[in-house]
Amino acid sequence: MESELSEDGYSVEAACRDYVEDRRSEKNEACAHDAHKRFERTVYGTAFGQIPVCRLVSLDIKAWRRETGLSKSSQNRTMTALRAALNLAVQNRRVGADRRIEWGSVRQHQGVTQRRTLFLDLDQRRLLIHHATGSVRDLMAGMALTGARPGDLASARRSHYDARTKSVTFAAKQAIRTVPLPTAAVALFDRLALGKRPGDFLFTRDDGKPWAHSDWDELVRAAAERAGLPAGVCLYSLRHAFITQSLMDGMSTLEVARISGTSLAMIERHYGHLVMTAARERLERVNLL
Fold this sequence. Notes:
By secondary structure, this protein is mainly alpha-helical. It is 54% helix and 3% strand. A hairpin with a 6-residue loop joins strand 2 and strand 3. Helix 1 runs antiparallel to helix 2, helix 7 runs antiparallel to helix 9 and helix 11 runs parallel beside helix 13.
């Protein structure tokens, strides 16, 4: 039986837009922007978005998810945002709590989070950055030289960079870490820091505004196409390349984990095969008997 609270005219798109505004006021702009981009690609202006939440059923959601054209891992992330938006509609009493069963019964895809296998070698990384245009080139170079997450670089301010110690402090993901910078990264950060005040962002878009999640997606894809690189190249490909190259060149798992801001468990789970190969090569050089 439909709840008395249900508003027949309150659509899925309206619920998603309300969720974005809630994230903006209750969380931060980056979180709101991420949700907005996901809904912009999959909900806004679609037939699915026009369905009243009080009439939404699990079959609608499953059909929408299939038709997004996203990979299953991306479907999971977008479904998480949609579920949060619909739960907020219940919380705000725009629709009855009895409707939760519809989206609650749509389970996430299992076993779809796999390690990244697309490795860009040095020539490919240089080619990708060479074919980038505008300020995304700096963001890509920063990724390639630090192994940081995009959010680390996007939130880095002038005061976080210490030219004297040649290091930068990242404060994303509720964790703070200070990492050393190689010579090429120092040159990049020196240039980006020039003339900026302590509170200014180091990495900004062409319009001078700070980067928000997914702003770079199309720009990186376009650069990869111009460079003739394999499909699937994204900004995270440069982080994956940093971790892979560092391990292959002999850096310890602890060093790589600390610099890239991840856990030893993640390194072992996704890059253990590289660690084993590098260890075997070094072992061959040891005079054991």
